[in-house]
Amino acid sequence: MTSVEQAAATAGSARPLDAAELAALRADFPLLGRTVREEKPLVYLDTAATSQKPQAVLDAEAQFSSRHNAAVHRGAHQLAEEATEAYEQARAAVAGFVGVAGDELVWTKNATEALNLVAHAYLNATLGRGGAAAAAEFALAEGDEIVVTEAEHHANLVPWQELCARTGARLRWIGVTDDGRLDPETFDVIGERTRVVALTHASNVTGAISPVVEVAAAARAVGAHVVLDACQSAAHLPLDLHALDVDFAAFSGHKMLGPTGVGALYGRRELLEAMPPFLTGGSMVETVTMESTTFAAPPQRFEAGTQMVAQTVGLHAAVDYLSQVGMDRLAAHEERLTRRLLEGIAAVPGVRVLGPTDPQDRLAVVAFAVDGVHPHDVGQVLDDSGLAVRVGHHCAQPVHRRLGVHASARASAGIHTTEAEVDAFIDGLHRVNSFFGVAGGEHG
């Protein structure tokens, strides 16, 4: 069973949130109670960019800062002990949430830093830094190949472009079909010179869920490492990184109900042990002399400097919150919203979905283009009605170019989104048509 099939089966067997449960859950998010644009109710449909935080996350950060704040792994006093315990408990909880061990999870500032950390391991090993183990696992030779996909966020594309430019490796990519899914006819780009396959678990533009298990199997067959961008999936699907058989995975706290300024990198234990460090300085060392330095074991080897402890505590609270709701039930809830979004948009003249129009095997992340109307103008009209959506290229220019547009507007639902909010968004799209005189724009 592929990862796409696993996600669909899990969501299909779970009971979606009912109206009473959803109302109680929404009350946990203080920001959702505010109004915008002349006292209009806020309809927040920009979860794919940044999710809102439940009160439990806000409280956890505040409690840490007011009661336990201290540097971790550095002091013998009680506050330092409490801070270190909270920091490492957060690591264990977040690691467990994505199906890995605590010593396989590295704290980073965000997913972009996590992906750069991995890319720089290959660069440093290629430059001869890190010793024999690093060279054996990560050093690249001219003509080696890095495979990405045409659907990648820039954070999982630009670091690999830079790595190729600095090492002589060649960048190749898996294509995207007209409906925004990875094109299986291009999977044969993974070949005997492939050293890394980097792909998104779910596109932040098309919402399509990638067949990770299938791609990972192709990479395994040629001895390549698999690097997964799990930013969009981590807060929306049950996630087991070991079961997906990837070597590295990155995700960000602020997309999964947690704070900004904290992300994580999963790395297979033996690979982390072989990796040379990315950033150096305090906290990641073992022994330092004036002539040389030896480095700590993972994950501390990759956590140089003072860490964002309050944010890790907040992310711990976020994964606890998601676990209490149940990721299978959350996926079922969002599958229902996806169906309603797609059906509603299909009834609006002149609006094209960039991505699959089938609600199966995709997230409630729906980018769209309105004929003859710039996405920023679409966003402004929707904003005037209290509807918060994303506009632009969403840090994914290549997939927009592949689908024939320079930019798009995007509605993305989350744990607290209601069907009534989806309906309000669809009404807003009809108003966009009426405002700009798009054919057939009258509604109701």
Helix count, DSSP H or I runs of 4 or more residues: 15
Mean model confidence by pLDDT: 95
Determine the CATH topology of the largest domain: Aspartate Aminotransferase, domain 2
Query: For the CA atoms, what is the radius of gyration?
Result: 22 Å
What would you call the quaternary organization? single chain
- Tally the structural domains: 2
Distance between the termini: 44 Å
Structural class: alpha/beta
Main β-sheet description: 7 strands, mixed
The assigned CATH architecture of the largest domain is 3-Layer(aba) Sandwich
Number of strands: 17
Strand content: 15-25%
- Strand order across the largest sheet: 4-10-9-8-7-5-6
What is the molecular shape?
A: globular
CATH superfamily of the largest domain, called what?
Answer: Type I PLP-dependent aspartate aminotransferase-like (Major domain)
**CATH top-level class of the largest domain:** Alpha Beta
